[in-house]
Structures are given as C-alpha cells and as structure tokens.
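Below is one protein, fold included:
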Amino acid sequence: MSGAPAAVAADAADLFAAARHCLDACDPGAKVALTHAYARRFRAGGLPVPENAAPPDPIRMPGRPPRPRLVHPRELPRRGFGSIEGRAAFVHAIAHIELNAIDLGWDAVYRFRGLPAGFYADWVSVADDEARHFTLLQGRLRALDHDYGDFDAHNGLWEMCEKTAHDGLARMALVPRVLEARGLDVTPGMIVRLRALGDDETVAILEVILREEVAHVAAGSRWFRWYCERAGIDPEPKFRELLADYARAVLHGPFNLDARAAAGFSAEELAALQAVADA
C-alpha cells in the first residue's frame, strides 16, 4: 500500500494504530516505509483520529534493530573528521538521531489524546521529514562504505521521551526545544568543517536537515505555548522550571540564537537556556 513493501503493509485503521505500528517496527527500512505510507494516507484523509480512544499503552522502547549497540554517551569514542572512518561515524550519529526522531514524532501522535487536529498534523509531518532525513544519511553512510548499525550509539533522546510521557507540556518543552534543538546549535559549525574538507555531499544533507529542523523545533514551541495557555500558565517561568528539573545535565552552549529565535524561542527563554547551561 502507498508504495510500502508487502512485508510492511500500512494497514492500520486509524492514526493512533498507525503511530503504534511505526513505533513497533524494528527494521529501519520498515519504519521509514511505514512512516511515509501512513503520512500520505493521513494527508489524504484516510487515517481518522479516533474519538474517545482508550488510553495509550505505557511508554516502552520502540522497535530497534539488533545494532547499533546502545552505550552511555561517555563510552562513545571521539573521532575527527580527517578520516573517512571519522566522517562515517559522524554521519552515523546523525542518522541515529534522525531514526529516534521518527519515533519521537510518532510517540507524540500516539501518546497525547484529545488535542487539536493541527497537533497531529504537525507531528505526522515531522515524523515524515525525519524518515526522509534518515534515508539521506543512510545513503551517505553507504557511500562511505558503512551502514547504520556499524557504530555504537546512545539512547538519550528516547530517555527524555520516557521521562516526559506523563505530560505533553513537558514533552513539547524538552524534547523538541532542548534535545532536538541542539542540532540548530551545532550543525552550522559541522557544515563549515565538512565544507573545508571538501565533503560537499554530507554538507548538502546537513543543510536540508538544518533548514527543516527549524520548523520542527517551532512546532515544539507552538504546542508548548498552546499547553501553557490551556493551563493558564506563563510559558517563560514554566520553561525555566522544566529546564532546571529535567535538562541541567544535557544542556550545553553555545546556542544558535538566530535559529532558535526563528524556531519560536523568546528572548527570555534564550536567557534561561544560557543561565541553566552556565550554572
């Protein structure tokens, strides 16, 4: 269906079932194919959002292939860009982030019920983009004589997803606006270094990802503020509180202030990020 292989037929009857199907897919190729197929069906009006659906299942680790091995971030070796191996390890790390980001998008769709239609449209679109990013990076890895799974990786993105499974407001504040937004900060410098090495192929992919990630982080900003408005909460103090409670250990500067402002951060929120990072 919709171009997906028969082995991964996108046959879920509604959007929550589709999200669960994508989350549970272990093979990255199947996860990507299902994501694209369900996103097309959703945009065409073929995946209704159920009313009065049962509560979501407790959060659990999404489907993953046997490799890469997941280790603590401190166990990941530091590699320079001067060798093909080093560049492949870097591309692998970004591909791993993008694979996780597919699941982060689908888990937002699956977990948080009774929300405006725009919420589901945003996060289905994000998952679809992240699947395309993963495919671009996997193709680049293969051009470098490697593949996804060849290097160790860490599980930090999904761990924050687990910590915020109880609260959509916290999820919107911390996953897109803290962890995923880190790409806005570091990618421009990576592009400069890779361009200096003549790796225009990787640069072209990173430029696509950087441009589109601004919109993804902006979706997090939009729905964080929506949750705050619904609860009658001032978003700036709430963001500072959440940073202090959850993100102190994972927040690092310097910050790409222009990109973050374009992604919906206020001047006060940018100051709060800097304060927590410097604490």
About this structure: Confidence is low (pLDDT under 50) at residues 1-6. The two ends are 52 Å apart (CA to CA). DSSP finds eleven helices and no strands in the chain.
